[in-house]
Amino acid sequence: MLTDAQCLDLMSRLGAAFPDARAPDSKGGGDPFRSVVSCMLSAQSLDRNTAAASRALFALAATPEGILALSEDQIATAIRPCGLYNVKTRNLRRMCRALIDDHGGTVPRTRAGLMSLPGVGRKCADIVLSFTFGEAVVAVDTHVHRVCNRTGLASGKTEEQTAKSLDIRIPDAFRRRGHVLILAHGKQVCKSRAPRCDTCILADLCEGRTKT
Ligand code: SF4
């Protein structure tokens, strides 16, 4: 694992390399309910497909009550672009029901509250906390998980374990932008199948370089 000083060095380099990095539209937005829904739709889906599914669904309904008033077929047809649409339709309906029954129709602002919703895991909860509620939280998705474990920035066998590790190790100065910076590096340089170690700005720090 990297030392605290190395973690700060690594994040500072990413900050300089990706000054304009920002979250895709599917992760942001001012409306908490839309953010939760979009995050649920994003599971195993490309950003552009998630965006298409979200647009189609929100054109029909954008409230828990509105979505519950739709038939399962209507929901599944709208969200078809993001895949797994039957499972996601069921989870969406269960999440909407729980929001109304347990939270008065309002999206909770805590990680525990968000994770109590059916179909909402830690990644989804942290994305909503970070990009909708503005909390200083670094969400860990598959890209962040991979980069953290390769470099030695944080460790964990699962995304949730890595999120807990990263929460302790990330320098405070990078809690707000940590996700987008690590994500950008993971998508553009430290790719899943062919990491570009030869030209990577983290190569001298990275613990995983020789293994990839
Ligand atoms: S040196 Fe290679 S494994 Fe390490 S962060 Fe860079 S691309 Fe990823």
From TrEMBL:
One GO MF term attached to the UniProt entry: DNA N-glycosylase activity
Cofactor: [4Fe-4S] cluster
A family per Pfam: HhH-GPD
Keyword Iron tagged: yes
Keyword annotations of the record: 4Fe-4S, DNA damage, DNA repair, Endonuclease, Glycosidase, Hydrolase, Iron, Iron-sulfur, Metal-binding, Nuclease
Top-level taxon of the source organism: Bacteria
CDD domains (UniProt xref): ENDO3c (cd00056)
Membrane-crossing residue ranges in chain numbering: none
Assigned protein family: Belongs to the Nth/MutY family.
Entry-linked PANTHER family: A/G-SPECIFIC ADENINE GLYCOSYLASE/ENDONUCLEASE III (PTHR10359), ENDONUCLEASE III (PTHR10359:SF18)
Protein name per Swiss-Prot or TrEMBL: Endonuclease-3
